[in-house]
């Protein structure tokens, strides 16, 4: 099962966990399973049409999923999916 | 015993003297030709032949073999009027250099022939003393330090990221540092904003930053802009600068910075922090992706981290701000590989650096090739995270 890296702003939904292991054969399945396990995280990730919000980037290992086939990108056991919401802090 | 005059006459017979035009032609025909200026540093500083290297007459024998080990390489020497270079050429021939030439009329003749000249930036005694540890690094040296001194960097924000970045850029000798911030120093800033002091609470951040930076390095010209960036002033603010360092704390400003950098084709050194996490990259329009390739639009207020969630480990913007400073220095020097197309993510709790690949979005509404600039957008300020 793939590991999902949870960014700081979304850890309130995962009881503080920064990494969770989630089943799924594609990035989309993994993130859907993640949303089912942790109530509330789904609407932070997906818009009403089921697409990932454009202010969130999903990386499969080092690559943006947009160049790996999007949510359909297949996921193996050793893969790491990272969620990157835009953060603006700097002061 | 021979007199100076008779020695000179003898050298004129044994050394091949050429005209400036012949020298210039030789360099064009055989680009491996070395053109060496053997005058003193002060003379070199007043101007020299373009493409020449400087090895003063006094150090010539000591330095020539390490600088030009190939004794078959054509070497053209010049001084001011053709005499010192004649003696210099004789020395090189004695060291085994076979193709040595002296420009008979020297730099004077070179200039009079209308051949290209340059005026190097000479470091002052105090610059030489202050930046000594840079001068000994081959990747910086005098030439690199001169680039730093000539560089104009604009810091947006004199806060958590801007303070450490500006502090080290000033120390490094970046000649012109602009700082934009409209805020005043608050006690809660001092946990991380290291340019400010307790006594300056309530005073202008840019003035406080300037005081500290000029205390560290009075050679740096610190230009303050006590203003809030908006679509109305962003282009004017950026116009005089080579590199923009983003140390802001909000989405509207980050998008304005990005869009102006895309329009003006200026590199945007980008950092952001949240609690124990930080990210840094370089958005270089035309070379790599821009901020909008990564995040086309800012998040709506209800889906961005709320103000209640704000907060950062005080040291963290130090780490990220200094990574921004290093990238800035590399861009100025033209050395190494910058973070263009790479997002470096620092997780302080795990003590882990990760690197993600960023691509240009061929459909990017701002930086895609052939796109007309769509204009600036003043997004609503909704939160300071």
Overall mean confidence score, pLDDT of chain A: 93
Question: Regarding quaternary structure, how should these chains be classified?
Answer: heterodimer
Structural class of chain B: alpha/beta
Strand order in space, largest sheet of chain A = 2-1-5-3-4
Helix content estimate of chain B: 25-40%
Radius of gyration of chain B: 27 Å
CATH superfamily descriptor of the largest domain in chain B: NAD(P)-binding Rossmann-like Domain
User: Largest sheet of chain A, if any?
Assistant: 5 strands, mixed
Strand content of chain B: 15-25%
Report on this model:
The complex is a heterodimer of chains A (91) and B (385). Chain A has a five-stranded mixed sheet with strand order 2-1-5-3-4, with helices on one face. Chain A has two helices and five strands. Chain A is an alpha+beta fold and 91 residues long. The relative contact order of chain A is 0.25. Chain A has one domain: Beta-grasp domain (Ubiquitin-like (UB roll), Roll). With 385 residues, chain B is an alpha/beta fold. Chain B folds into two domains: 117 residues, Oxidized Rhodanese, domain 1, CATH 3.40.250; 234 residues, NAD(P)-binding Rossmann-like Domain (Rossmann fold), CATH 3.40.50.720. Chain B is built from 15 helices and 15 strands. Chain B has an eight-stranded mixed sheet with strand order 10-9-8-11-12-13-14-15, with helices on both faces. A five-stranded parallel sheet of chain B has the order 1-6-5-2-4. In chain B, strands 3-7 form a two-stranded antiparallel sheet. In chain B, helix 10 packs parallel to helix 11 and helix 10 runs parallel beside helix 15. The longest helix of chain B is centred in the C-terminal third of the chain and has 18 residues. Chain B starts with a helix and ends in a 28-residue tail after the last strand. The chains are: A alpha+beta (91), B alpha/beta (385).
Helix/strand layout:
The complex is a heterodimer of chains A (91) and B (385).
Chain A: E1 2-5, E2 19-22, H1 27-37, H2 41-45, E3 56-60, E4 63-64, E5 80-85
Parallel strand pairs in A: 1-5
Antiparallel strand pairs in A: 1-2, 3-4, 3-5
Chain B: H1 4-14, E1 16-18, H2 20-29, E2 34-37, H3 41-45, E3 48-49, E4 53-54, H4 60-67, E5 75-78, H5 84-94, E6 100-103, H6 106-112, E7 117-118, H7 125-130, H8 132-135, H9 141-150, E8 152-156, H10 162-172, E9 176-180, H11 205-216, E10 221-225, H12 234-239, E11 243-246, H13 251-264, E12 268-274, E13 277-283, H14 291-294, H15 316-333, E14 342-347, E15 352-357
Parallel strand pairs in B: 1-6, 2-4, 2-5, 5-6, 8-9, 8-11, 9-10, 11-12
Antiparallel strand pairs in B: 3-7, 12-13, 13-14, 14-15
